[in-house]
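User: quick one, fold this
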Amino acid sequence: MDTRLLRVLVELERRGTLRAVATATGYGTSAVSQQLAALEREMGTALVEPAGRGVRLTPAGRRLAEHGRGILAAVAEARSALDPQAEPSGVVRIAAYAGAISRDLLPVARLLARSHPALRPQLHEHEPDEVLGLLDDGLIDLGFVYDYNLVPWTCDSPSLLLCETPLVLAVPAHGHVPAEVDSPAALAAYAGSSWVLNSRGKADDELVARVCALAGFTPLVAHRADSLELVLDIVEADLGIALVPDFLPARKDVAFVPLSGIDARRRMYAVTRPGGWDWPGVRLFVDHITNQVSTPP
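Assistant:
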């Protein structure tokens, strides 16, 4: 249905005369009559009837005008939501890994709840592979994922690199802890250690395999955990070691050893669907997340 024709009918219900409709829409009275006739042909029923020297809506015309008011309002709301200059509003479905939600997304969501109450972010926790699947299926509007420079990923969806964080080796703090791993060979000192890896993402397995291959050994994967906090709990319990981003808070029984001799970094991206960056709500959220991740903890 042509919404321009529908608007003429709604204006006729509101204003009562063809002349008033013509003034409101900017059309001539003859054009208004032609548009009403076109709408009648499209609907297959009479929508107006003569009334003295003017016209009035038929019962079918009144019913269509009633629906038309809601249709036109919904169209106007949709156009506003897609207008890059419009005030951000509505639901934004967001999926991200647990660390991003707790460290970055929740502070931004709290801030936007005060500054833009009409914007309603919905947060869902998923690992990067799952986030990309949800995006492909059209189930989310915005996603936050990570990869590693040693295990780069490819994605057909529009993406934006937000930040890069060096990786460090998390080891139990007792006994001898080196000041740094200044070469791949230095990592061979941990050839007999158990490793803690992500339980749902395959990239962590590939990352640790490649890093350990540089030192000439195959890692022994003994534990798996989704959250970085749980990973550190396992390290703290003296049950394994792990590669983690260099922004985690200090722990009494965990030492973070810099990998000065191995260029290993985790990279955070925002991803959306084609045209997603033009949505005011998506753009606003990404802008705030960009500021959030560029601010030291």
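User: anything notable?
Assistant: Residues 142 and 250 are 31 Å apart (CA to CA).
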